[in-house]
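Field guide to reading this record: the first block holds the primary sequence, the second block holds the structure written as discrete tokens, and the final block holds curator observations. Each block starts with its own label. This record concerns Protein-lysine N-methyltransferase CYY_009019, catalogued under organism Polysphondylium violaceum.

BLOCK 1 — SEQUENCE
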Amino acid sequence: MSGQEEIVEVQSSVLGTKEHWDDCYDREIECFDESGGDDVGEIWFGKSCLKAMTKEISQLSELNKETSKIIDLGCGNGMTLIELYKLGFRNLYGSDYSQKAIDLAEKIAQHHEYSINYFVDDITQLNGEQGEYDAVLDKGTFDAIALSENRDEMKALYKKYVEKVLKDQGLFIITSCNYTQNELTTYFPSSNFQYIKNVQYPVFKFGGSKGTSQTTIIFKYIR
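BLOCK 2 — STRUCTURE
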């Protein structure tokens, strides 16, 4: 990429608060229980995005389905990890700062009888072991952090966490609906985050313009 694109931030929102997500997942747990496990709650960016992204991950030669240790940051209801488990991945972890999200994710995994590891963690506290994971996934968490009132500080801590827990040559796979590919490659510079590829999604047309509703980029982290 030549040059750098200025990152245009959206305004802060309730979506950037823990209270919102606690309330959201509290309601989704009720719906899950009442439906007998049929209602898993909202799937961020939709099922087609989820399936396209996880299929792309399953084809990455850098990852071994049995041994590669993968974490989904801000996993929510854990449906990204559910899809990866269906595709054969077995060393899966999900973290979220909402206990309610973890409760729901564990219920869904138990319903499917899938062995997935979930835990509560505020990633901005920089917990986690150095070089612990072969891949770090994010589908919407960076977006939510960018909606907080102190977004600059939170985004900087987020990046430090990713850099801390990823192994050298590990993969960082981020999906966003707020940031373009150029914006993400600007924020995660090539000196540490080597761009590998982006995930291709169906293109929509509106008012003579073309685009997609989300962006997924796969980086290789160089420590």
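BLOCK 3 — OBSERVATIONS
Helices lie at 18-34, 47-58, 79-86, 99-112, 141-145, 151-165, 181-187.
The chain has a mean pLDDT of 90.
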